[in-house]
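It would be a great kindness if you could assist me with a short task in structural biology. The matter concerns a single protein, recorded as an amino acid sequence and a row of backbone structure tokens. Kindly check, if you would, that the fold set down in the tokens agrees with what the sequence suggests. Thank you for your consideration; the sequence and its tokens are set out here:
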Amino acid sequence: RSRILADNPDRICERLVERDVQQARAELASLKKAINATLQETRRFIFDLRPMILDDLGLIPTLRRYMQDFGQKYGLEIGMSVHNLEQRFPRHYEVALFRFVQEALNNVARHANANNVRITMDTFGQQVQLLVEDDGVGFNINEALAERPGRVTLGFAVMRQQIETLLHGQLGVESAPGRGTRVVAMVPLPGGM
């Protein structure tokens, strides 16, 4: 099969049909399946980079769709509750908060061995709190950061950039072995809200 696929693509079908119609059908079915899988993966990649519905529908509907897809992909039950939030945020806020949740979920999938994730978004006075917590294995924060700085801190660095650098907020992480992990972001409400 690999020799056939390495050949000139416009001759593949002709040569297969000349040799063996059944093999040609099987090869075409395999190619169709591979193309569809690649298309779905490309769509997911594009959505991960910049979900277009974020601009159209806003942060909450986009997060709900992302959570559903992510949960199915990684076998996680993900729930979200939103309180005291009637208005949309400015575009850069929505993008930064989406990236924060995206990276938090990526960390859960990579490291937590969790079954359930809960996302809570609420406003308190002039601040927005965004909490992502899982029921995974947890970890000792000091040991993890000291022993594996490249692997563990990369996700935290991305979250820190979104929350502290871009939105001038604060990022906190609570975890212990056997107790899951809580990642919380507190960001000031954008002016005028």
Summary: The helical segments are 2-6, 9-19, 21-49, 52-57, 59-74, 91-112, 141-147, 149-166. Residues 21-49 form the longest helix (29 residues).
